[in-house]
Write a structure and sequence with these properties.
By secondary structure, this protein is mainly beta. Helix content is 0%, strand content 52%. It has strands at residues 2-7, 10-13, 18-26, 34-39, 46-51, 57-59, 67-72, 77-82, 91-97, 107-112. A 6-stranded mixed β-sheet has the order 2-10-9-4-5-6, with no helix packed on it. Strands 1-3-8-7 form a 4-stranded antiparallel β-sheet, with no helix packed on it. It starts with a strand and ends with a strand.
């Protein structure tokens, strides 16, 4: 069983920054893609960013140029640096890994205007 624990969320003013972390533990045989997704109230969960073991990074259009995903394969930790935050970034942010398909419990990010 794999456990994912997100941290680093909180309340920040527009234009501010936050750094999310996702610590992964448990029966990890191999992790290929690691990613961040978010879900705002009344909306579907959407892609924020993904990072493959080969180094490929993919970002959602709304966060390109503002967010940066990174990973520490030794410590099995995923990060998301979020800069120039906007009120529309307010959501619960979830960590996700493949091939296990596991999700974390989420961490709330709230951006005030």
């Amino acid at each position: 069983q794999v456990q994912l624990v997100e941290s680093g969320g909180g309340l920040v003013q527009a234009g501010g920054s936050l750094r999310l972390s996702c610590a992964i533990s448990g029966s990890i045989f191999s992790i290929n893609t690691m990613g961040w997704y978010r879900q705002a109230p009344g909306k579907q969960r959407e892609l924020v960013a993904t990072s493959s073991r080969g180094g490929n990074r993919n970002y959602g259009d709304s966060v390109k140029g503002r967010f940066t995903i990174s990973r520490d394969n030794v410590r099995n930790t995923l990060y998301l640096q979020m800069n120039n935050l906007k009120p529309e970034d307010t959501a619960v942010y979830y960590c996700h890994i493949l091939p296990s398909g596991s999700w974390g419990q989420g961490t709330q990010v709230t951006v005030s205007s």
